[in-house]
Amino acid sequence: MPERLAEMLLDLWTPLIILWITLPPCIYMAPMNQSHVLMSGSPLELNSLGEEQRILNRSKRGWVWNQMFVLEEFSGPEPILVGRLHTDLDPGSKKIKYILSGDGAGTIFQINDVTGDIHAIKRLDREEKAEYTLTAQAVDWETSKPLEPPSEFIIKVQDINDNAPEFLNGPYHATVPEMSILGTSVTNVTATDADDPVYGNSAKLVYSILEGQPYFSIEPETAIIKTALPNMDREAKEEYLVVIQAKDMGGHSGGLSGTTTLTVTLTDVNDNPPKFAQSLYHFSVPEDVVLGTAIGRVKANDQDIGENAQSSYDIIDGDGTALFEITSDAQAQDGIIRLRKPLDFETKKSYTLKVEAANVHIDPRFSGRGPFKDTATVKIVVEDADEPPVFSSPTYLLEVHENAALNSVIGQVTARDPDITSSPIRFSIDRHTDLERQFNINADDGKITLATPLDRELSVWHNITIIATEIRNHSQISRVPVAIKVLDVNDNAPEFASEYEAFLCENGKPGQVIQTVSAMDKDDPKNGHYFLYSLLPEMVNNPNFTIKKNEDNSLSILAKHNGFNRQKQEVYLLPIIISDSGNPPLSSTSTLTIRVCGCSNDGVVQSCNVEAYVLPIGLSMGALIAILACIILLLVIVVLFVTLRRHKNEPLIIKDDEDVRENIIRYDDEGGGEEDTEAFDIATLQNPDGINGFLPRWGLPIQWWEERNPIQTCLFSRSRIPRSLLFIFFHKDTKINCITQWTT
């Protein structure tokens, strides 16, 4: 037994020893956290190797390390130990100093520069930062020289389930058609968890419904919400509130959860037919109601909404289908009954209609529920009213010849009172439509007579309005338009369409058309105008001209011979008789003036004046122009010569006794009033050109002239007529002041 026990102990300790040899030399544990040791091989040992071995073998890093981990949200009385740095160059003599740099070095993480222990001095949150990258280095304590190259390592923050799921887009709203089948998808929701989805089940969510059953269900993993009941009716309940929960840790106990709400609204479908509120409607209407007036409204209720509740209304039967119509009001969803044709209480006192309301938009899925329409009966009672007179025709057209005799009857209008009492009617003409009072009407029988003569050429149509008034009730009146057409009679003779003047060339040829004329007639015969042209009986054998009727109802005048001469006769007058085709025919005589002119070889008229013929034979137009130019030139030379001669005769030196520029004569004598006014002609002062006729004779004494013409005394010259004369007169009370100025 002892041997057997010894073998068992040997078998037990052998693997433990081998495991202890292969594991890192030192492992430390910190409270609530795993610690890590980073070690290195001794570079001193590397230095003791042979040169050949250093060439053949790769130099190893000084640091041997693994990732470090630290739990988030750890809060204890002491800083948490994250791990330890160590190098095999450290013999324990405290000559090596450890340095830490990188993310959070000195603020979040601190290192013991002697032992290499790394502590977290702050509370960490993985959701804020999941890992930190730092750099470790061992230096000489005294010289601070690096003993080895720096090495990077990562401290990862391990996640804990410290965040509940959240619905970031909630609360939710969704719609689903009513009457949907079981399992119809409504919508899907999404919750988020800030925890690490890779580490553990902290972010694994499971969805469930807390409120809203049994109407809706949810897929636990996809969060798709579906209907759990078929044929939900909007008319019974339109809106549902569903409370949805998302729980992490896979839905297990201990997990965190978040909730949101979903409001589901059932949308309408056309699953209900229209229904009239009552099966029988009663309306009454006066017989004189205006066409198009709304008589009444009928309404078929529909539990649906929107376009699913729209209904169209029609009259499908009854004895008033021709008199009434029904239209649909899209806003009020009812039918409006209107009058199409006039009513007559005396003819029919009531009508019965059958109206139908039918849905406009029908859903074929629900067609099996029956017809989506309904019918109702409408009774309309016609009420009696005092109606105005009614003419036998809505308009009248009368015709009268323009030569109709005065007071002759040209037509008649008739009207009656449609009421049972049948009041007598009185007729009159609206004088606003007959301002010239050309027509009259018999107030009792409505006969229209002619009051003034008519002239079709002045006005073809006359439009008047006839008024019919009830004698028993003057407020009941009716009006009717009457159009009177004036018929034509042949009372106007034809005449030339315009004033014609023909020109005949002296060198014209026989048979040449001199002028084409046309005639006009103010009358308007039914078959159109047709004119006959002829010469006066005494001019039938005219030796100079003849006439020819054209197909277009015009007339051409032709020359019978050539050799017309302006010196012998310059103008010819040709009287022409124009007759129409009326009954009886009328005619008039129009005279055509034919002037003989000189023409060029191609027939262009050049001159029609006989004075041109007194020129010498053979004198051309160019020669005549040259002669006139010479005469004008000679006249200009003579005028220039006379002007120069006059300036040459004037003296260049002015005598001293004549070098007086101004003479002022003042008269202080009182005027004689009207005697002064009559003593001279005021027109002389207003017309400077006439002054010379009133100048005094030279040599007369000034005093003699003043006594007879006190104002004109200022106008005379001393020794000769001045070249420039300025007059200024001042009439002030009875004083007369005069200033005269001579310039040489």
UniProtKB/TrEMBL annotation:
<dbReference type="GO" id="GO:0005509">
    <property type="term" value="F:calcium ion binding"/>
</dbReference>
<feature type="domain" description="Cadherin">
    <location>
        <begin position="168"/>
        <end position="276"/>
    </location>
</feature>
<dbReference type="InterPro" id="IPR039808">
    <property type="entry name" value="Cadherin"/>
</dbReference>
<keyword id="KW-0812">Transmembrane</keyword>
<dbReference type="GO" id="GO:0016342">
    <property type="term" value="C:catenin complex"/>
</dbReference>
<dbReference type="GO" id="GO:0007156">
    <property type="term" value="P:homophilic cell adhesion via plasma membrane adhesion molecules"/>
</dbReference>
<keyword id="KW-0732">Signal</keyword>
<feature type="domain" description="Cadherin">
    <location>
        <begin position="392"/>
        <end position="496"/>
    </location>
</feature>
<dbReference type="Pfam" id="PF00028">
    <property type="entry name" value="Cadherin"/>
</dbReference>
<keyword id="KW-0677">Repeat</keyword>
<dbReference type="GO" id="GO:0034332">
    <property type="term" value="P:adherens junction organization"/>
</dbReference>
<feature type="domain" description="Cadherin">
    <location>
        <begin position="277"/>
        <end position="391"/>
    </location>
</feature>
<dbReference type="GO" id="GO:0035249">
    <property type="term" value="P:synaptic transmission, glutamatergic"/>
</dbReference>
<dbReference type="GO" id="GO:0045296">
    <property type="term" value="F:cadherin binding"/>
</dbReference>
<dbReference type="GO" id="GO:0098978">
    <property type="term" value="C:glutamatergic synapse"/>
</dbReference>
<dbReference type="GO" id="GO:0043083">
    <property type="term" value="C:synaptic cleft"/>
</dbReference>
<keyword id="KW-0130">Cell adhesion</keyword>
<keyword id="KW-0106">Calcium</keyword>
<dbReference type="GO" id="GO:0042802">
    <property type="term" value="F:identical protein binding"/>
</dbReference>
<keyword id="KW-0479">Metal-binding</keyword>
<dbReference type="GO" id="GO:0016339">
    <property type="term" value="P:calcium-dependent cell-cell adhesion via plasma membrane cell adhesion molecules"/>
</dbReference>
<dbReference type="GO" id="GO:0097060">
    <property type="term" value="C:synaptic membrane"/>
</dbReference>
<dbReference type="GO" id="GO:0044331">
    <property type="term" value="P:cell-cell adhesion mediated by cadherin"/>
</dbReference>
<dbReference type="GO" id="GO:0000902">
    <property type="term" value="P:cell morphogenesis"/>
</dbReference>
<dbReference type="GO" id="GO:0008013">
    <property type="term" value="F:beta-catenin binding"/>
</dbReference>
<keyword id="KW-0325">Glycoprotein</keyword>
<dbReference type="GO" id="GO:0043679">
    <property type="term" value="C:axon terminus"/>
</dbReference>
<keyword id="KW-0472">Membrane</keyword>
<dbReference type="GO" id="GO:0016477">
    <property type="term" value="P:cell migration"/>
</dbReference>
<dbReference type="GO" id="GO:0007043">
    <property type="term" value="P:cell-cell junction assembly"/>
</dbReference>
<feature type="transmembrane region" description="Helical">
    <location>
        <begin position="613"/>
        <end position="642"/>
    </location>
</feature>
<protein>
    <submittedName>
        <fullName>Cadherin 8</fullName>
    </submittedName>
</protein>
<keyword id="KW-1003">Cell membrane</keyword>
<keyword id="KW-1133">Transmembrane helix</keyword>
<dbReference type="InterPro" id="IPR015919">
    <property type="entry name" value="Cadherin-like_sf"/>
</dbReference>
<dbReference type="GO" id="GO:0009409">
    <property type="term" value="P:response to cold"/>
</dbReference>
<dbReference type="InterPro" id="IPR002126">
    <property type="entry name" value="Cadherin-like_dom"/>
</dbReference>
<dbReference type="GO" id="GO:0005912">
    <property type="term" value="C:adherens junction"/>
</dbReference>
<feature type="domain" description="Cadherin">
    <location>
        <begin position="87"/>
        <end position="167"/>
    </location>
</feature>
<feature type="domain" description="Cadherin">
    <location>
        <begin position="496"/>
        <end position="618"/>
    </location>
</feature>
<dbReference type="GO" id="GO:0050807">
    <property type="term" value="P:regulation of synapse organization"/>
</dbReference>
<dbReference type="InterPro" id="IPR020894">
    <property type="entry name" value="Cadherin_CS"/>
</dbReference>
